[in-house]
Amino acid sequence: MRPFLTAVVLSLTCLVAAACSSERALQKFSSPEDRALSEQIIAAIQRGDGGVIVAYLPPSIAPQLTQELPKMRAAVPSGPGTRVTLADTRFTVRSATGEPTTRNSYLAYEVDGGGRFSIVRLGIERQGGQVRITDLYANALAAPARELSAFKLGGKRPAQYIVLALTMVSVATILAALVLLWRDRTRRRRWLWAIGCLFGLAQVAVNWTSGEVSFTLLNIQLFGAFALKDGMLGDWRVGFGVPVFALALLLAAAFEHGGRKPPAQRDATPPAVEP
């Protein structure tokens, strides 16, 4: 029982640690040029200066800026004390023979205006020395972006709590089975059992924000569980795979143990006396 409880505690600790993020890591995954351009565009939105933005927009979408800029300016706080913080980033690099390398970057900035919050998302493409903005969105937020996308235990549906509990139970079952294998040196094919116990079959997952539950039949899940989110601002998804081999091992060990008599009971049986 003690290994199982220890495994549950370790599972919960891993989920909490996974929810932690570092702004320093975001700085490393984004280039100084992209950050400088993004902050320049955000400042232009705050001023309502469409000329700076149009210079980086493709001709096909540049005419839309005249209509959208007042809406974006109204959504983005400005003035003294306003803080602009990098909240999310990622990039892809494409390289083909005979063509210049293309780098597509995505950056999301949170603008904090002392009680008013907004998120500004930019897509930047760099190819052969040319730079253009492929996406530009600005939306007001009811709370800080990290708070809206944080992993919170309160106020969820019963199905979300059930999937979360089964996720931790799946990891705990696998850890308990591995501890059993480590202690039981006499079991045959221990290494094959160990490999099988590392995986869970199929997948049940829940979107921790929306509560949507999904099921995938053909899936192999390492360590029997996962907790992930799409970027720093995406929704958390939590799920598990059924630890079939770990369950089979624990059940087999329980039946084997139940079929053996304790030493005291075996010694209490009197020997047969021949006449």
Q: Could you please describe the fold and organization of this structure?
A:
With 275 residues, the protein is of the alpha+beta class. The protein folds into two domains: 128 residues, no CATH class; 126 residues, Nuclear Transport Factor 2, Chain: A (Roll). It has ten helices and eight strands. The strands form two sheets. The chain has a four-stranded antiparallel beta sheet with strand order 1-2-3-4. The protein has a four-stranded antiparallel beta sheet with strand order 6-5-8-7. It is elongated, with a radius of gyration of 28 Å. About 3% of the residues have low confidence.
Characterize this entry briefly:
The protein is an alpha+beta fold and 275 residues long.
Order of helices and strands: HHHHHEEEEHHHEEEEHH
- Count the beta strands: 8
**What class, by secondary structure content?**
alpha+beta
Order of strands in the sheet with the most strands? 1-2-3-4
Mass-distribution shape: elongated
Number of separate helices:
10
User: Which percent bin holds the helix content?
Assistant: 40-55%
**Major sheet characteristics:** 4 strands, antiparallel
What portion of residues belong to β-strands?
Answer: 25-35%
Low-confidence stretches: 261-268
Taken together, the total number of domains comes to 2
Q: Could you give the distance between the termini? A: 49 Å
Q: In angstroms, what is the radius of gyration?
A: 28 Å
Mean pLDDT across every amino acid position = 84
